[in-house]
Amino acid sequence: MRKQIAAANWKMNLGLEEANNLLDSLVQANIELSGDRETVLAVPFPYLLLAKEKLKGSNNFYVGAQNCYTKENGAFTGEISASMLKSCNVDYVIIGHSERREYFNESNFILFQKIDICLKNNLKPIFCCGESLTVREAEAQNQYVETQLKESLLHLDANEVRNFVIAYEPIWAIGTGKTATADQAQEMHAFIRKVLSEKYGDDVAQSISILYGGSVKAANAKEIFGKPDVDGGLVGGASLNASEFIQIMQSLK
Ligand SMILES: O=C[C@H](O)COP(=O)(O)O
């Protein structure tokens, strides 16, 4: 079975003390995630090393960054490179979150470069895709998401592609309390898998975890994650509360 993943995206939230407390609560809960299930905590850059330290010894817990730059190193004040993240033993990097696309003008081509530099540094990208409300209302979501995949990912070969995770996040469901229905999520996830299968074959497509993101909470996680092509979630707001996130982790298939 492919990996089932509960990924927390803390976004730009929490001070050091709060981050520390949340990590402690998650570790102390001592949740045993078996076999193919895992948790990723994508924390702000200043807390990456703290998270690595705290999660040492917790099985199936991984640490992720929320972004990286397109270049290896150099005079790019304020940016963080994939090789720096690797040197801190970070495992995953979120690439192409809709907030990065919207507020920092990250195009599909910039994301193509970020994906490549992550793979070169043995970091696993969590590649985000998803449509706006306008696109959904025009019923053009499949075409829109397919273009995002084609322009940023589908240049990779089959071996490279096995090393990433995709997160489908309809923009209209992020932080709005408005969740895609489990059936809408399943429909898009199946479509993404079909696009992957056409390019890489069914074996590869079946091995890639596709997460759903957008107002996932303890109350709806089980239903959404229960769908056959939904392999867990990328969780924003609800990941900032330990007991809520623990219930989400426990809702993985
Ligand atoms: O990365 C997470 C997504 O943007 C979802 O955020 P949310 O769970 O607060 O809606």
TrEMBL record:
Keywords: Cytoplasm, Gluconeogenesis, Glycolysis, Isomerase. It is found in: Cytoplasm. It comes from the Bacteria. Pathway: Carbohydrate degradation; glycolysis; D-glyceraldehyde 3-phosphate from glycerone phosphate: step 1/1; Carbohydrate biosynthesis; gluconeogenesis. InterPro entries: Aldolase_TIM, TIM_sf, TrioseP_Isoase_bac/euk, Triosephosphate_isomerase, Triosephosphate_isomerase_AS. One of its GO terms (cellular component) is cytosol. Homodimer. This is Triosephosphate isomerase.
